[in-house]
Amino acid sequence: xxxxxxxxxxxxxxxxxxxxxxxxxxxxxxxxxxxxxxxxxxxxxxxxxxxxxxxxxxxxxxxxxxxxxxxxxxxxxxxxxxxxxxxxxxxxxxxxx
Length: 97
Fold this sequence. Notes:
Layout: E1 9-18, E2 21-31, E3 44-48, E4 54-55, E5 63-66, E6 69-70, E7 75-83, E8 86-95
Antiparallel strand pairs: 1-2, 2-5, 2-6, 3-4, 3-7, 7-8
């Protein structure tokens, strides 16, 4: 599936921890060059596997941290970036032993 993100923008997803224990998780969009000239992302949200929060304000650099947690099982942990209710991009990590 093709999803468009403005030129000059990146979506990053970082997970730190060991085993099923996540000690730090962060995801965000960051724009430079042409992307930084846009009005930003409006009505955005970043979903993690077990969390979901929508932000009605417009931001040029939306970012979200997730609280530390222990996953119930090994598998994929993903961050999904939505703008106006439409998924624009996802990034996943495989959590393994």
